[in-house]
Specification:
The complex is a heterodimer of chains A (about 325) and B (about 180). In chain A, about 25% of the residues lie in helices and about 20% in strands. In chain A, helix 5 packs antiparallel against helix 8 and helix 9 runs antiparallel to helix 10. In chain A, strand 10 and strand 11 form a beta hairpin. Chain A is of the alpha+beta class and about 325 residues long. Among the domains of chain A are: about 50 residues, Uridine Diphospho-n-acetylenolpyruvylglucosamine Reductase, domain 2, CATH 3.30.43.10; about 110 residues, CO dehydrogenase flavoprotein, C-terminal domain (Enolase-like, domain 1), CATH 3.30.390.50. Chain B is α+β, with helices and mostly antiparallel strands and about 180 residues long. Chain B has 2 domains: about 80 residues, Ubiquitin-like (UB roll), CATH 3.10.20; about 90 residues, DNA polymerase, domain 1, CATH 1.10.150. Chain B has 6 helices and 5 strands. Chain B is globular and about 50 Å long. In chain B, strand 1 and strand 2 form a beta hairpin. In chain B, strands 2-1-5-3-4 form a 5-stranded mixed beta sheet, sandwiched between helices. The chains are: A alpha+beta (about 325), B alpha+beta (about 180). The interface between A and B is large, with 39 and 42 residues. The structure holds flavin-adenine dinucleotide, iron/sulfur cluster and FE2/S2 (inorganic) cluster (2 copies).
Chain lengths: ~325, ~180
C-alpha cells in the first residue's frame, strides 16, 4: 500500500479545497470500499481527507415533506429511521438487503452511491481494465460475465453498479446536494451516475473535489406502497444479480402511477421509464407487468462469457419485476 | 507517514504512534496485544475481525486506526465482566457447541452482542416481514430467521451455524435487562 497522509480539516469547505488542489487526494467516509481498494492496489491516493465528522449525520425534515439525509448518516441508522421505514419502505429494504450489519454500521449515505464496481477484473490489478487503467482493455469481454451489464454497456466496459441503496434512490426521484470548490449544486440522483461510453474510468458526473453533503428524498405519497426485491446467489451477504425497486399506485384494479428502478443490470442504477410508461393506465395484471418488463428490456443485450454469460438476467429480471409488482398491487398502502 | 492516536480498548487507555495505513484490527492485534479479534480475509468478507466501537459492531479490517482516534473499542475478550467470568453470550456459545476451531468465535460473539442491541432497538432486517412494524420476536421461527440474517456477515468455516443460531436465540430470549 502506498503511504498516504490523513487529514481532518475544520469544515466541509476546507475539505473540498484540500482535495480539489491535489490530484492524488480523495475523500474518506466509512472506508468500507476505499480501504479495500487501498489494500488491493486499485486506489493509491497520497492524501485521505476524512469527511465523516464534517458532513451531517442527521436526517432532517424538509419543508416540502421530504427528508434531507446527511452524507455521514450510516446505512444502518438510515434503514432504522421510523420516517424512512414509513414513507420510503423501498429505501429501508434496499439498505437492509446490502452488505452485513457490521458494514452497514460503517457505510455512509455519501459513500454508498460512490462505491465502485465489483467487477472482478477491476479489483484484480494484474488484469486489463479500462475503468482502473484507461486504455488497457477490458478483461471482462468474453471473460466471466455472469455479474455484468445487459443494458447501456459499451465496448469499453460492461460493469454494473453494485449499490442497492442507489437503486431505491433512483426510483424515489432523490436529489444529490454537492459542494465543490466553486460552490454548491444539486444533481438529480438519476443523473449522478454515468454510462461507460468511451470514458469508463468515470462512474459519476462529480468533478474531482466535489463533495456530497446530503441526499434529499422528496415527499412522494406513492412511495408508501413500495418494495425492494433483490435476487442473489445466496440468501444474504451477497451482491445482487438483479434487483427491482418499485413504487405502485393502484386504484380499482387500474395502475395510476409507478416508479421503478433496476439494479445489477447497468453501469448505473437503471430508472425504468419505459416500464413506468407502459404501466400507467394499464390494468393491474401479470400481462401488464410482463409487457412493462418487455418494454424496458427491448434493448437489453446479454454478454457471452466462459462462465455461461448473463443471458439469464433477462428472464430473471422479468420474473422479479412481475412478482414485485404483483405483490405491491395486492397490498394496502402502508403508513 | 506516522500519526499519534489514543484508543480505549476493553477499558484500558493506550496512546500509540502508527503508520496511517494501519487498520484498527492490526493496531489491536499487533500493537496492543488484543488478539481476540481475528484476521480472516482482510477485505470485509468474513466478519472474523468484528469488534464493538461505541457499542456498535464494525469490521476492524476495513477501519483505519487513524480514523478512530479516541474510540472506545470492545473486543470479545473485553466483554467478560471479570477474569474468571463469562459474558452471557460466551456462556451460550459454550452451552450450544457454537464453535469448533474457534477462529471465527470472537467475531461471532461481538456480532451477536451487536445483534441483541439492534433487536432491542427494534431495528428491522432483511428478514423482517414488515419494515414499518419492525421485527416480530414473539415467534421462534421468525426469530431464527432474524438471527440467521443478522449474523450473515460472520462466516464459519467449521459450519457451527446451528449452534450459533441457538446460542444467540437463547440470549435474545432472556428477560430484558439481563441481556448484555
Ligand atoms: C463484503 C462486502 C459486501 C458488500 N455487499 C454490499 C451489497 O450487497 N450491497 C451494497 O449496496 N453494497 C455492498 N457493499 C458495499 C458497501 O455498501 C459500500 O462499500 C459502502 O456503502 C461505501 O460507503 P463508505 O462510507 O464506506 O464509503 P468509502 O469506502 O469511505 O468511500 C467510497 C468512495 O466514495 C467517496 N466518498 C465517500 N464519501 C463521499 C462524499 N460525501 N462525497 C464525495 N465522495 C465521497 C470516497 O472517496 C470513495 O471513493 C459491500 C461491501 C463489502 C466489503
Ligand atoms: S467491465 Fe469495466 S470494470 Fe470490468 S474489466 Fe471491463 S473495463 Fe474494467
Ligand atoms: S478479516 Fe475483517 S471481515 Fe474478514
Ligand atoms: S468455529 Fe471454526 S471457523 Fe467457526
Amino acid at each position: 500500500m502506498r503511504p498516504f497522509a490523513y487529514a481532518t480539516p475544520p469544515d466541509a469547505r476546507e475539505a473540498v479545497l484540500a482535495v480539489a488542489e491535489r490530484p492524488d487526494a480523495t475523500f474518506l467516509a466509512g472506508g468500507t470500499n476505499l480501504v479495500d481498494h487501498l489494500r488491493l492496489g486499485v486506489a493509491a491516493p497520497g492524501l485521505l481527507v476524512d469527511v465523516t465528522a464534517l458532513t451531517s449525520a442527521e436526517i432532517d425534515d424538509l419543508s416540502d415533506g421530504g427528508l434531507r439525509i446527511g452524507a455521514a448518516v450510516r446505512n444502518s441508522d438510515l434503514a432504522a429511521d421510523r420516517r424512512v421505514r414509513a414513507r420510503y419502505p423501498v429505501l429501508a429494504e434496499a439498505l437492509l438487503a446490502g452488505a452485513s450489519g457490521q458494514l452497514r454500521n460503517m457505510a455512509t449515505t455519501g459513500g454508498n452511491p460512490l462505491q465502485r464496481t465489483r467487477c472482478v477484473y477491476f479489483q484484480d490489478v494484474t488484469t486489463p481494465c479500462n475503468k482502473r487503467a484507461p486504455g488497457s482493455g477490458c478483461a471482462a469481454l468474453g471473460g466471466a460475465t455472469r455479474n455484468h451489464a445487459v443494458l447501456g454497456a459499451s465496448e469499453h466496459c460492461i460493469a454494473t453498479h453494485p449499490s442497492d441503496m442507489a437503486v431505491a434512490l433512483a426510483a424515489l426521484d432523490a436529489r444529490v446536494q454537492v459542494l465543490g470548490p466553486d460552490g454548491e449544486r444539486e444533481i438529480p440522483f438519476t443523473e449522478l451516475h454515468t454510462l461507460p461510453g468511451d470514458t469508463p474510468e468515470r462512474d459519476t458526473v462529480l468533478e474531482h473535489g466535489e463533495l456530497i453533503t446530503a441526499i434529499d428524498v422528496p415527499d412522494l405519497p406513492i412511495a408508501t406502497r413500495s418494495r425492494y426485491r433483490k435476487v442473489r446467489d445466496r440468501a444474504s451477504y451477497a451482491f445482487a444479480l438483479v434487483s427491482v425497486a418499485a413504487c405502485l399506485d393502484v386504484a380499482g384494479g387500474e395502475i395510476r402511477d409507478a416508479r421503478i428502478a433496476l439494479g445489477g443490470v447497468a453501469h448505473k442504477p437503471w430508472r425504468a421509464h419505459r416500464a413506468e410508461e407502459a404501466l400507467r393506465g394499464a390494468p393491474a395484471t401479470d400481462e401488464s407487468y410482463r409487457a412493462a418488463a418487455a418494454a424496458e428490456l427491448a434493448d437489453a443485450r446479454p454478454q457471452e462469457g466462459f462462465d455461461g454469460g448473463n443471458a439469464f438476467k433477462i428472464p430473471l429480471l422479468t420474473g422479479t419485476l412481475v412478482s414485485t409488482l404483483r405483490a405491491l398491487a395486492g397490498e394496502e398502502t402502508r403508513a | 507517514m506516522e500519526t499519534e492516536l489514543t484508543l480505549r480498548v476493553d477499558g484500558a487507555t493506550h496512546h500509540l504512534r502508527v503508520d496511517t495505513r494501519t487498520s484498527l484490527l492490526d493496531a489491536l492485534r499487533q500493537r496492543l496485544g488484543a488478539t481476540s479479534p481475528k484476521k480472516g480475509c482482510d477485505h470485509g468478507q468474513c466478519g472474523a475481525c468484528t469488534v464493538l466501537v461505541g457499542g456498535r459492531r464494525i469490521l476492524g479490517c476495513l477501519a483505519l486506526a487513524v480514523a478512530h482516534d479516541g474510540a472506545e473499542v470492545t473486543t470479545s475478550a473485553g466483554l467478560a465482566p471479570g477474569p474468571d467470568e463469562a459474558h452471557p453470550v460466551h456462556r451460550a456459545f459454550v452451552d450450544h457447541d457454537a464453535f469448533q476451531c474457534g477462529y471465527c468465535t470472537p467475531g461471532q460473539v461481538c456480532s451477536a452482542v451487536g445483534v441483541l442491541d439492534e433487536l432491542e432497538r427494534g431495528w428491522p432486517s432483511a428478514a423482517t416481514a414488515d419494515v414499518v412494524a419492525g421485527p416480530d420476536l414473539g415467534d421462534a421461527r421468525a426469530l431464527d430467521r432474524e438471527i440467521a440474517e443478522r449474523m450473515s456477515g460472520n462466516l464459519c468455516r467449521c459450519g457451527a451455524y446451528k449452534g450459533i443460531r441457538a446460542a444467540v436465540a437463547e440470549v435474545a430470549g432472556v428477560e430484558d435487562g439481563a441481556r448484555r
